[in-house]
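Lecture 7 notes: from sequence to structure.

We start with a single chain of 287 residues. Read the sequence below before looking at the structure.
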Amino acid sequence: MTTTRIATVIPAYNAAASIEAAIASAREQTIPPAEIIVVDDGSTDATARLAGAAGVRVIQQANAGPGAARNRGIAATDAEWIALLDADDSWRPERIAHQLERIGEPRVAVIFSGQHFVEKQPPMPPPTIDFEGLWERNRIPTSSVLLRRAAWESVGGFDESRELIGVEDYNLWLRMAHAGWQFVGIPERLVNYQPSASSLTRQSQRFAVAEVAQLRQIATTLGLDAARVHAKEYTTYLQYGMELFYYGERTAAKQFLSEAARRGSLPPKARLQLWATHLPLARWRRP
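Now the structure, written as tokens:
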């Protein structure tokens, strides 16, 4: 049995439909965490009651977002490592055991894995990732993260700004990587990712706006040069503009693709999409 103390922290907002399954997946680990903490983030449903009935520690707070909820949960435990889990996800039974094999290096802040996604299978994670790789894009599924508490503390925890809701995890990874902390990936799918219809990743426009806000905030925080920020703004607007077009969000797609065009040349597919957003009678439907 490992002597490393691990706590699971689950931020939950109106997660009554999934919280019991999330808790069960943490409890059924081959090496279970020492404690499971659910932070109820101002839910109006039965989330807190169901979590309490499951026998885990429940902390309730006024709605402040997942970053604030994670900070509250981590601050409430003295565990050296924090196994992050979102309330609509679950773990494979061997998740913690496989990650514990890789905690030896003192500068390792995050051990993460791949995830099983109901709609498509994303690529497996790289064996390591640094600031440059993260700056290109976020490759770290939050519910797969085993987080060193000392690294979280060293950069001030999750940013609790409401404008960053949905990308507060990415913001933390960038700050830790920039500070020299290391990230280790496991080429296995140890998380089942099954977002509900109301999850942030399905709210494409809100997620896109948060991503742009986080880009500008992190550039200011880390003092990044203007050319790098300009290039990243272009790729961010382009990526989310094309995604918003796919989801039928016409007005937002037009806005984001136009912003990308102001910063660089659009590829042919994106130019066609931008042109289509100007059609007055266009009918929008996700394929």
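The first helix runs from residue 19 to 27. Keep this in mind for problem set 3.
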